[in-house]
Specification:
CATH topology of the largest domain: Jelly Rolls
InterPro entries: Asp/Arg/Pro-Hydrxlase, Asp/Asn_beta-hydroxylase, IPNS-like_sf, Lipid_A_LpxO-like
Largest sheet: 6 strands, antiparallel
Number of strands: 10
Strand order of the largest sheet: 1-8-5-10-3-2
CATH superfamily of the largest domain: B-lactam Antibiotic, Isopenicillin N Synthase, Chain
Helix content: 40-55%
Keywords: Dioxygenase, Membrane, Oxidoreductase, Transmembrane, Transmembrane helix
Structural class: alpha+beta
Number of helices: 11
Pfam family, one: Asp_Arg_Hydrox
Shape: globular
Family: Belongs to the aspartyl/asparaginyl beta-hydroxylase family.
CATH class of the largest domain: Mainly Beta
Protein name: Beta-hydroxylase
Length: about 300
């Protein structure tokens, strides 16, 4: 049984690594979060009801058309949030999924996150929240801000049960502000939408002189079989809800982010150790990884 599990994990990691044209360095991929959940994501890819391509035509998702039709109303609520300075980075290190993005100035305001509660969104963005609730396939949504000069480094998202939808609200409206998915670039425009598979390597950059604000949504991945769709719904409802992060006091913080807050503070000691002597740090880390691998294989 142990070797069966190890074999499934190795094959799943290889599937994730070689999927698409752009790849992470192999050793980074081994320790990337997408490798830890690779069997789950391999399952999602195997039974996916959409083609295995970086971008998908928005016409495949007609239920999302009302978002684009109402983009000016959505933008008005986003602009009001900006004026109130409500689109922001996490204040208490309680957003594990996007923690690394905050370092470059990326900001967000959650409108919906699976089954989590965000009273702040209902209060400040009632029209957008109501519209999102009318579309069952939208499982999560936020306003995401990328200021001039900001860059999001290459990464894969950890959960293949969703696809990503972006709707341009306030953009430079030119190619200076773009996202690159598996080597193919897309530049945001006001009122225009795009759908892509976030489990391909992607990165983004705003080389323009003005801000970029979009409506950022997770759309439930269509599955080929009803039983696979049921599994996907269950995972989203249980696991992804636990990854919820608050906009402000009163919003729900999921269990994953409560634990992440503790680990983030513990990580401060790790970062001090690394700053003290990088060589010793990497030797100790390699020894610990080797010890864990030996325990899994021979234990």
């Amino acid at each position: 049984m142990k070797w069966t599990i190890i074999t499934i994990y190795v094959l799943s990691i290889l599937h994730i690594h070689f999927r698409g044209r752009v790849r992470l360095p192999f050793f980074r991929q081994i320790f990337d979060h997408s490798s830890f959940v690779s069997p789950l994501n391999t399952f999602m890819h195997m039974f996916s009801g959409v083609p295995a391509t970086p971008y998908l035509p928005t016409s495949r998702f007609p239920e999302l058309l009302p978002l684009q039709q109402n983009w000016e109303m959505i933008r008005a609520e986003a602009l009001n949030l900006i004026e109130l300075q409500k689109i922001s980075a996490a204040q208490k290190n309680d957003d594990a999924g996007f923690n690394s993005f905050f370092k470059t100035g990326w900001k967000r305001f959650y409108l919906k996150w699976y089954d989590a509660s965000h009273p702040s969104a209902e209060k400040l963005c009632p029209n957008t929240v109501a519209l999102l609730r009318s579309i069952p396939t939208v499982k999560a949504a936020m306003f995401a801000e990328l200021p001039p000069g900001a860059k999001l480094n290459s990464h894969r998202d950890p959960f293949a049960g969703s696809l990503r939808y972006h709707l341009g609200l306030v953009t430079p409206n030119n190619d200076s502000c773009f996202i690159d998915v598996d080597g193919q670039r897309y530049s945001w425009r006001d009122g225009e939408a795009v759908v892509f598979d976030e489990t391909y390597i992607h990165w983004a950059k705003n080389e323009g002189s003005s801000n970029r604000v979009i409506l950022f949504c997770d759309i439930e991945r269509p599955m080929r079989y009803r039983w696979a769709q049921v599994i996907n719904k269950w995972l989203g409802r249980t696991v992804m809800t636990a990854a919820s992060s608050p906009n402000e006091t009163g919003d729900q913080t999921g269990g994953i982010n409560k634990v992440f807050r503790v680990f983030w503070h513990a990580g401060q000691y790790r970062r001090r150790f690394k700053a003290w002597n990088r060589t010793v740090y990497y030797i100790v880390r390699a020894l610990l990884i080797a010890a864990v691998a030996a325990w899994i294989i021979f234990g």
